[in-house]
Amino acid sequence: MKLKDLLVSACSNLGRSKGRTALTIVAIVIGAFTIALTTGINIGVNDYIDKQINGVGGERQLIIYPKQEQFGSDDGPAVYQEGKSNAASTEQATLTDTDITALKDVKGIKNVKPLIYVSTDYISGAAADKYVFSSAPNMDQMKIDIDQGRQASDKSAEYEVTLAPEYVKALGYHSSKEAVGKQVEIGVTSPATQEQQVVKATVVGVANDSLIQGGRSLINVALADKLLSINQAGMPDTMKTEYMAAVSEMTGELSEERIGSLKKRIDKIGYQGQTVDDEIGMIRSVINAITSVLTMFGAIALFAASFGIINTLYMSVQERTREIGLMKAMGLSGGKIFTMFSFEATLIGLLGSLFGIGLAVMAGGLINQIAMESFLSSLTGFTLIQFSLPTSGVIILIISGIAFLSGTLPASRAAKQDPIEALRYE
Prior knowledge:
7-stranded mixed beta sheet, 4-stranded antiparallel beta sheet, elongated, transmembrane helix, MacB_PCD
């Protein structure tokens, strides 16, 4: 009996007791459905978090700040010391060109640049109204989630802006697509001279809603330099070279140990470093923890279903005892009988996982549609549940493997049947 014949026979045998087989498959479907759906949520949420991270900077980006006095530590508040200044400084420390030069010598980072902040008064567009405008300059490795158009380019000498979605209708445009290519006016004032100037810039794109950007638009380097020059007009030269922070790129392997070691080296020379993951890594951890708990419920359902497979095949072995004896008497080896029953168990797992994932995909599509029209309507670009072929393939393989292992006990019993005793079985 060839392998193909054993597979055909296994498929035929599953149809002998349709009700029992169907109930066992349903149990597998429930487990596969739960695991596929929770995995899809995990993929969807993490994909959105990755988009948010890219909107702040890449995984190699390290933001460096001047070290600040702390009120305490993880061990508790700082102890008051008589005769010493115990008040934390309310004045924000800054970096200078000297600090930037010193940071360039730190092993493990490169491309150290001052992080520039610009202050703007308003923005106006097709409508005559003016709106408070907040912007952030492009940074290396930054890649924001775009709805229409493109990200402002640092290679362009033209003044470019990628608008936050909140400004589209406010500025008089009916849609993000209509806003792309239009000119806007940005009002900027110098604190020193109190002189306000108007700078014209082109909208090259509109971003999707972002939890992190907080309504800030993205401007290219050319526009950032222009706005900064207006901000700094009339200021002393020493104030023009003061920066709130610096941005750098980490080199080498990005292991927790290497990043921790780099932060310690920076700390020793009077600075503190923060990665993008430090800012929102906790969100990812919470989401992963929640989906892991939900996945456990699916695993419990699969565990219960494995007993259903064992019971189904044990009953099948008992009902087909004489048939097994006859096959052995005709020369079929115990190994092939074991293979045939193992095929039956694996097929139950395969069918259950396929139906379960199929239902999860349909349910996911419906949930995504409801979510986008209701509680996720304000988060454009966020697909709550996403599925991937590799992940689905792994789920199918795992469930089929569990089913195979569950079927080994009854399959082994069938393979060990004595043909004479089996033929006598009533």
